[in-house]
Design brief:
The complex is a heterotrimer. Chain B is an all-alpha fold. Helix content of chain B is 76%, strand content 0%. In chain B, helix 4 packs across helix 10, helix 10 crosses helix 11 and helix 10 runs antiparallel to helix 12. Classes of the chains: A mainly alpha, B mainly alpha, C alpha/beta.
Chain lengths: 323, 308, 335
C-alpha cells in the first residue's frame, strides 16, 4: 500500500484483558454513567476568540505586527531621536556613509537619511491607514446599502461600480494627482476615488448571503427597523472579509504612494517620502548604494508586514477554513 | 456569442464615455491653461493668443468638449500642447511598438514561469520547489517594481556589467525590463496556479478519473491543468493593468521609448492633451483586452453561457 | 489464493491528521463472489467508503493501509505495483461515486470521458471507442447517444449523469463494480431507476456488485448479502433475509427500527438510535457501539467481541458479546 508508517496499534481483544478483570461481573449490564455518550471534548469557542487564537499561533502574522509596530515607533519618535530636521541641508557632510552621527548616512545635500526615512514612515503609514479607513467606510456604506436594499437600486449601484472599475485605477489616480497637485492629501483623495469599489463589492456579496439567513428573518419578525438590522446584524456579521480586504488595501496604498513619488508625480521635494528617497538615490546609486538601501528596505518590509498580517487575518477570519 | 460581445462592447462604451468626460473636465478644471501667460514666460503674448485660438482653447468649455468628442469619433486625439507639431496620435503610434514588445514578452515570460512553478509547488507540496515559489511569491508581491528594477540594474548592469544599463534596440536591452515587469505577475500566477491546482486535485472528478486507471501524469496534465488554469486566465485582464503600472517605471528607468514614458513626461509637464489622449487610449486598450480574455475563458470553459 | 473474487482480511486503515491519528477502519474481513450483489451498510463515517478506497489505493498520502490479505481475481493486491494496480482500475474493477454532479470533469465532453478508459485499457482507436461509447450510453438508457456524446456534463441532469457514470464504469466490462452511495444524491424516483439499471447491468455482464450505502431500503431492494459496519468494524454480516428478519446485533436492530417502512404505515414506531458514532481518533477499547447500546455489559466497554456465526456454516454472524457464550443473563434484557 502507500507508505506503511505503522502507526496503527493493535486492537484490544478478549485475550489481551488480564485474567483478574475477567472474573468479576463482566457480563453484568453496563451502568449508564459508565457509557461515554456524547462526550463533547472540544470546548465551544466564539468566532473572534478562535480568530485571535489562530492569529496568535501564526508566526508570520505576528512578525508582521512586530514590524508594523517598529515602523509606527519610527514614524512617531524617529525624527525626535536625532537632532536634525528632515530638510536641513549641510553640504560639508554630503553623501556620508552610515556612522554614529548619521545612522543611515546623508544624502547629496547633507540631509540626515535616518530622519528622512522616519519622515517617510509618517507619510507612508498615514497614506496607507487613512486611505484604508476612508475606503472601508465608503465601501461598507455603499455595498451595505446596495446589498440590503436590493432590486433596482442594487443593480444601478453595481452598474456604476462596474463602469468605474472597467478602467484601471492607476489612470484615475494619476488624473486626480495632476488635478490636485503633488501633496500627501491628494494621494489619499486619489486613492479614495477607486479603492472603495472592491470593498463595496465584497460587502454587498456578504450582505446578500447573510440577508437570507434565519437570524435576519427573526430580527424582522420581532420588528427591528431596517437600519438597525443593517448596522446591528448584517455589517457586524460580514466584518471578517471586510477587515481582510482593508488590511490588503493598506500595502496597496503605500505602494501607490511610493510609486507615484518615484515617478515624480507623488510627494514633492523637499518632503521625504520613501518613493522620493528611492528616486533621489538613483543618480548616485553606483557610488552610494546605501541611499537606495534604506528607503527600499523600509518600503519592502512594510508591505511585507501588511501582507503577512492580511494573510494571517484571512486564515483566521475565514470560517470556511475553520477546522 | 455575437450578442454577448455586442453587449460587452456597449458596456465598455459607457465606461469609456464616463472616463473621457471625467478626464476632459478634470484636465480643463486644472487652474492655469497651458498657454496662459503664467505658464510660458518666454513666449510673446500675441503668439500665445494665436496658439490658444489654434487649439480652440478660447472657446467655451462645452464647445471644446463637443469638438473633442467629434475629433475622438474620427480617431483624432488632437495636438500635444508641449511637443508642438506633434499630434497625440503620432506619439501613441511611435510609442506603441516598444511598449507592446516589452509588455507581450513580460506576459509570455510570466505565464511560462508562473504556471509550471505553480503546478510543481502544488504537486510537491512542502518540497523545496514549493518553498522557493513561496518565497518568490512573497518577494514579488511585497517588493515594488521600481525597487526590483533598481536592484536588477544595480547588480547586472552596474556591478556585473553583463547587461546594458538602459536603452532600447537589442535583445540584451530587453532582459532586465522584461524580468522586472514579469516579476510580480510571476508571483501572482504561481500562487494562483498553486492554490487552484490544490483545489482541483481535491475534486471528486480527479478521484473518479484515478479510479478509472488513468495514469497520474495524464490525470494531472489532462484534467488537473485544464481545470486549474481557469483562474489564471481570468487574471490576465488585471495583469495587463499591472503591466501598465510597471511600464511607467520600467520605460522611464530604462529609457524605453514607449507610451508609458511619454505619459509620465506628459504628466510631469502637464501636457493636458497628451494626458487626455493616452488615458483614453489606455482605457480602450485595457477594456478590449479584458473582453478578449473573457471570450477566451468562455471558449475554454463550456459551462459559461453567453447569456448575460 | 482464495476462491472468492474479492477477499479482504484484517484490513486496517488510518489517517494521520493534524491532531493525531484517525483509525477509520480497524480490522475487517470482507469477501465478494462472482456475480454477487453485496451491500455494505452503515452510518456516515463508519469506514465503509474508506474500506473500498483502501483496497483500490485511492486514498490520499496521509493514509496508512495494512491488511493480512487483499486478493482480487486470484491476484494478491498487496504485491501489485502501482502501475499494475492502476491497470486493474477502470478495467477489471469499475467504480461509481456518490455525487454525479461532481464526479465528471466539467471541461470535457461525456464522450471524451467514456472513451478515456476504453482507449487506455482496451487500446481501442477513437472510432472503436466512440462506437462502444454509443453502445454503452444506449445500454444505460440515454436516448440519442450520438448527440449526447458531444455534450458536456452540465448539460445532463443528475440522474442522467449517474447513468453516464455507470456507462463509464461498465464500459470495459469489469468483474467487480463498486458503487459508493450511487443513489444518495438523487431524487427518490431516479434512485429506483438507477438501482434497477445497476441490477440490469449485473445480470447482463455477470459483474459482482458491491453497493456501499447508508440506506437499508436500498439494500433490501437489491442485495443478496449484507455487511453492517459501525465505528470502523463489521458488526454483523449475513444474507439480506437474515439481516432483515433475524438480526443479531443490537446495532442492526437499532438500524432496522430507525427506518420507516412504507408497507407498515402507522403500526411500527420509529425508534432512533440515541447518541452519535464514536470518535475514531480515540476509538473505545471494546465494542464501538457500547455507548449507544441498550444492552451493553461491562465487558462490552473492555474488549472487542469476535465475529461469531449463529450456526456452523450459516453465513450469518455478529460481533457482539451477547452472541457469545455466557451472555445468557444479558440476553433477557435485549429489546
Amino acid at each position: 500500500m502507500k507508505k506503511n508508517t505503522g502507526f496503527i496499534p493493535d486492537e484490544t481483544y478478549l485475550k489481551d484483558i488480564d485474567a483478574a478483570a475477567l472474573s468479576g461481573g463482566l457480563f453484568e449490564p453496563l451502568p449508564s454513567e459508565e457509557k461515554q455518550t456524547d462526550v463533547i471534548n472540544r470546548p465551544s469557542v466564539s468566532y473572534w476568540e478562535n480568530a485571535r487564537a489562530k492569529l496568535k499561533a501564526d508566526p508570520l502574522a505576528m512578525g508582521g505586527f512586530m514590524i508594523i509596530a517598529i515602523m509606527i515607533a519610527l514614524a512617531v519618535f524617529g525624527p525626535m531621536m536625532r537632532p536634525y530636521a528632515y530638510d536641513e541641508q549641510n553640504y560639508s557632510i554630503a553623501n556620508q556613509t552610515p556612522s554614529a552621527d548619521h545612522w543611515f548616512g546623508t544624502d547629496k545635500f547633507g540631509r540626515d537619511l535616518f530622519v528622512r526615512v522616519a519622515y517617510g514612515a509618517r507619510i507612508s503609514l498615514t497614506v496607507g491607514m487613512a486611505a484604508a479607513a476612508i475606503n472601508m467606510a465608503v465601501g461598507v456604506i455603499y455595498g451595505g446599502i446596495s446589498g440590503f436594499v436590493g432590486g433596482r437600486t442594487d443593480m444601478l449601484m453595481m452598474r456604476i461600480v462596474d463602469i468605474i472599475m472597467a478602467v484601471p485605477s492607476l489612470l484615475y489616480i494619476i488624473l486626480v494627482m495632476v488635478f490636485l497637485g503633488a501633496h500627501m492629501h491628494s494621494i489619499i483623495i486619489a486613492l479614495c476615488f477607486t479603492y472603495w469599489l472592491g470593498t463595496a463589492r465584497i460587502v454587498r456579496a456578504q450582505i446578500l448571503s447573510i440577508k437570507s439567513q434565519d437570524f435576519v428573518l427573526a430580527a424582522k419578525v420581532i420588528g427591528e427597523t431596517d437600519s438597525k438590522i443593517l448596522f446591528r446584524h448584517l455589517i457586524p456579521n460580514s466584518m471578517g472579509p471586510i477587515i481582510v480586504t482593508v488590511t490588503f488595501l493598506i500595502p496597496q496604498a503605500i505602494f501607490y504612494e511610493a510609486f507615484l513619488s518615484f515617478i515624480g508625480i507623488g510627494i514633492a521635494v523637499p518632503v521625504a517620502s520613501w518613493g522620493t528617497l528611492a528616486n533621489d538615490s538613483l543618480s548616485n546609486m553606483n557610488t552610494y548604494p546605501h541611499l537606495m538601501l534604506f528607503p527600499a528596505l523600509a518600503i519592502s518590509l512594510t508591505i511585507f508586514a501588511f501582507n503577512f498580517i492580511g494573510d494571517g487575518l484571512r486564515d483566521a477570519l475565514d470560517p470556511r477554513l475553520k477546522r | 456569442m455575437a450578442k454577448y460581445i455586442l453587449k460587452r462592447l456597449a458596456a465598455a462604451g459607457i465606461s469609456m464615455l464616463v472616463l473621457v468626460t471625467a478626464t476632459f473636465f478634470l484636465m480643463h478644471a486644472v487652474p492655469g491653461s497651458p498657454f496662459s501667460p503664467g505658464e510660458q514666460r518666454n513666449v510673446p503674448p500675441k503668439v500665445l493668443e494665436n496658439l490658444r485660438s489654434k487649439y480652440g482653447l478660447d472657446l467655451p468649455v462645452w464647445k471644446q468638449y463637443l469638438n473633442y468628442m467629434d475629433n475622438l469619433f474620427h480617431g483624432n486625439l488632437g495636438y500635444s500642447f508641449k511637443k508642438l507639431n506633434y499630434t497625440v496620435n503620432e506619439l501613441i503610434t511611435s510609442g506603441f511598438p516598444a511598449s507592446a514588445v516589452v509588455g507581450a514578452l513580460a506576459i509570455l515570460f510570466a505565464l511560462a514561469v508562473g504556471i509550471p512553478l505553480g503546478i510543481t509547488s502544488a504537486l510537491k507540496r512542502g518540497g523545496w520547489m514549493d518553498w522557493f515559489s513561496m518565497i518568490l511569491a512573497t518577494v514579488g508581491i511585497s517588493m515594488p517594481i521600481f525597487i526590483i528594477a533598481i536592484l536588477l540594474m544595480f547588480v547586472f548592469s552596474m556591478k556585473l556589467q553583463i547587461l546594458p544599463i538602459y536603452g532600447y534596440g537589442t535583445a540584451s536591452h530587453l532582459v532586465i525590463p522584461v524580468i522586472c515587469l514579469a516579476f510580480s505577475p510571476i508571483a501572482y500566477i504561481t500562487r494562483l496556479m498553486r492554490s487552484s491546482m490544490l483545489e482541483v486535485l481535491r475534486q471528486d472528478y480527479i478521484r473518479s478519473t484515478r479510479a478509472r486507471g488513468v495514469p497520474e501524469l495524464m490525470v494531472i496534465a489532462k484534467h488537473g491543468v485544464r481545470n486549474s488554469i481557469l483562474p489564471v486566465v481570468t487574471y490576465i485582464g488585471p495583469l495587463i493593468a499591472i503591466l501598465l503600472t510597471g511600464s511607467f517605471v520600467v520605460e522611464r528607468l530604462f529609457m524605453i521609448p514607449g507610451i508609458g514614458r511619454y505619459f509620465v513626461t506628459a504628466v510631469s509637464e502637464r501636457d493636458y492633451s497628451v494626458i487626455l489622449g493616452i488615458t483614453i487610449f489606455y482605457g480602450a486598450f485595457i477594456m478590449l483586452c479584458t473582453l478578449l480574455v473573457d471570450v477566451a475563458y468562455a471558449i475554454i470553459d463550456p459551462r459559461v453561457k453567453f447569456t448575460d | 489464493m482464495s476462491g472468492h473474487l474479492l477477499e479482504i482480511r484484517n484490513l486496517r486503515t488510518a489517517f494521520a491528521i493534524a491532531g493525531g491519528v484517525v483509525r477509520a477502519v480497524r480490522g475487517i474481513d470482507i469477501f465478494a463472489d462472482k456475480g454477487e450483489f453485496l451491500g455494505v451498510v452503515g452510518e456516515s463515517g463508519c469506514g465503509k467508503s474508506v474500506t473500498m478506497l483502501s483496497v483500490m489505493r485511492l486514498l490520499s498520502e496521509n493514509a496508512s493501509v495494512k491488511a493480512d490479505l487483499l486478493s482480487f481475481d486470484g491476484m494478491d493486491l498487496l504485491r501489485q505495483s502501482p502501475k499494475k494496480m492502476r491497470m486493474l482500475l477502470g478495467d477489471k474493477i469499475g467504480m461509481i461515486f456518490q455525487d454525479p454532479m461532481t464526479n465528471l470533469d466539467p471541461l470535457y465532453t461525456i464522450g471524451n470521458q467514456i472513451m478515456e478508459p476504453l482507449k487506455l485499457h482496451r487500446k481501442m482507436t477513437s472510432r472503436e471507442a466512440r462506437k462502444r461509447a454509443v453502445e454503452m450510453l444506449d445500454l444505460v438508457g440515454i436516448s440519442s447517444p450520438e448527440q449526447r456524446l458531444k455534450q458536456y456534463p452540465h448539460e445532463f441532469s443528475g440522474g442522467m449523469r449517474q447513468r453516464v457514470m455507470i456507462a463509464i464504469a461498465m464500459s470495459c466490462n469489469p468483474k467487480l463494480l463498486i458503487a459508493d452511495e450511487p443513489t444518495t444524491a438523487l431524487d427518490v424516483t431516479i434512485q429506483a431507476q438507477i438501482l434497477e439499471l445497476m441490477k440490469d447491468m449485473q445480470d447482463k455482464f455477470a459483474t459482482a456488485t458491491l453497493l456501499i450505502t447508508h440506506d437499508l431500503g436500498v439494500i433490501a431492494s437489491t442485495c443478496s448479502r449484507v455487511i453492517v459496519m459501525y465505528g470502523g468494524l463489521i458488526m454483523e454480516s449475513g444474507s439480506t433475509e437474515d439481516i432483515f428478519y433475524r438480526p443479531e446485533h443490537p446495532y442492526t436492530i437499532g438500524l432496522l427500527s430507525s427506518i420507516s417502512d412504507v408497507g407498515d404505515t402507522g403500526r411500527k414506531k420509529l425508534t432512533p438510535i440515541p447518541g452519535s458514532p464514536p470518535d475514531l481518533m480515540n476509538p473505545p477499547a471494546g465494542c464501538p457501539f457500547t455507548a449507544r447500546c441498550d444492552s451493553a455489559m461491562r465487558i462490552c466497554a473492555k474488549a472487542r467481541p469476535q465475529m461469531t456465526e449463529t450456526g456452523p456454516g450459516s453465513g450469518h454472524g455478529a460481533a457482539c458479546w451477547l452472541s457469545e457464550a455466557g451472555a445468557a443473563t444479558g440476553k433477557a434484557g435485549r429489546g
